[in-house]
Design a protein that fits this description.
The chain is α/β, with parallel strands linked by helices and 334 residues long. It folds into two domains: 5-120 and 299-316, ATPase, nucleotide binding domain (Nucleotidyltransferase, domain 5), CATH 3.30.420.40; 128-294, 2-Layer Sandwich (Nucleotidyltransferase, domain 5), CATH 3.30.420.40. The protein has ten helices and ten strands. The protein binds 5'-O-[(R)-(carboxyoxy)(hydroxy)phosphoryl]adenosine (KG4) and zinc ion.
Length: 334
């Protein structure tokens, strides 16, 4: 079979990224331009600033990606773009770019779901094996997904309120660390002790999650400590918070693995970069004889390599869009 080269485009939040992946598994070149430095001063992503930065960056990023690959746009088989969910202005920049390139170079246009992309970040580590359970943990999503074949997704449960990454970032703000709080809490938790008592959220038999109660508990605890004139121990709070997150994520995920008699687990999304979460799942999977894959740290957070890998399977599945494709900020995974 002829080699298939997919150009992936990702711009759903605050990363502008292009990547070329061969046959769904072989990464040829990836460029990620992150806007974290811009948004840091506001304590989170400012949508209008994000879309303007995408417009400014996008032509440089695509040029660098093609240069690094030594491939021209004519040699690309198809163009895959993350068209939702995400920030509408940010998505629009990537989608318009993809449509323009597809039109000019007469290439098929492949619409990719951003979360499906996060799942396929694992495919660049090891070819996915089915059936599998994917735990998606990102800044905007917390979901348990069942897959029995490529590009086929069944949502088993999700968060009823905040996403886990959002909760990490909020806790980061409470303890006074820069945005995004997730990676800093990860480091603090490695040296902290679980000395603060926090509630285990939605401790039931469903596959759903809830993080707003945990977030409020951390905020209240911090206020109480300040009112009593006591200094907050950041490391201990980070560790106490993360332990509760790990307990709820592992409990619900291992429950789904048993119920669906699945032997493969993958983690996906920015929070899948977390050391404590990875270690906990590794230990449990080894004990229970479950095969597991985690995304590489650099491709746990947003990138276009995952969109290009995922786009390959969407392409094989015949999922081709026409030039009326529009971004969808609340796109469902199906
Ligand atoms: O997947 P992603 O790049 O964007 C979305 O699609 O939402 O995830 C970003 C999220 C942020 O909330 C960030 O704090 C979190 O991933 N994150 C982490 C770590 N690295 C990134 N959370 C916990 N531990 C980490 N090491
Ligand atoms: Zn993402």
């Amino acid at each position: 079979m002829k080699d298939i080269y997919i150009l992936g485009i990702e711009s759903s939040c605050d990363e502008t990224s292009f990547s070329i992946v061969k046959n769904g598994i072989e990464e040829i070149s990836t460029v990620i331009s992150s806007q974290i430095a811009i948004h840091k001063q506001y304590g989170g992503v400012v949508p209008e600033i994000a879309s303007r930065a995408h417009i400014k960056n996008i032509t440089f990023v695509i040029e660098e990606c093609l240069d690094k690959a030594g491939i021209t746009l004519n040699e690309i088989t198809a163009i895959a773009v993350a068209y939702g969910p995400g920030l509408i202005g940010s998505l629009l920049v990537g989608v318009e770019c993809a449509k323009t390139l597809a039109f000019l170079y007469h290439k098929p246009l492949i619409p990719v779901h951003h979360i499906a992309g996060h799942i396929y970040a694992n495919n660049l580590v090891k070819r996915l094996e089915f059936p599998l359970i994917a735990l998606v943990i990102s800044g905007g999503h917390t979901e348990l997904i069942y897959m029995d074949k490529d590009y086929s997704f069944r949502k088993l449960g999700s968060t009823l309120d905040d996403a886990v990454g959002e909760c990490y970032d909020k806790v980061g703000r409470v303890i006074g660390v820069e945005y995004p709080g997730g990676p800093v809490i990860d480091k603090l938790a490695q040296i902290g002790k679980p000395n603060y008592k926090l509630p285990l959220p939605l401790n039931d038999d469903s596959y759903n999650f809830s993080f707003s109660g945990l977030k409020s508990a951390v905020i209240n605890l911090a206020h109480n400590e300040y009112q009593k004139g006591r200094e907050l121990n950041k490391e201990d709070l980070a560790k106490s918070f993360q332990d509760v997150v790990i307990e709820t994520l592992t409990k619900k995920t291992m429950h789904a693995i048993k119920d669906y008699k699945v032997k493969n687990l993958i983690l996906a999304g920015g929070v899948a970069a977390n050391t404590g979460i990875r270690n906990a799942f590794q230990e449990l999977c080894e004990k229970e004889n479950i095969s597991y894959t985690f995304p590489s740290i650099k491709y746990a957070t947003d990138n276009a390599a995952m969109i290009a890998s995922c786009g390959y399977y969407a392409y094989l599945d015949g999922r081709i869009a026409d030039l009326t494709l529009n971004p969808e900020s609340s796109l469902e995974l199906k």
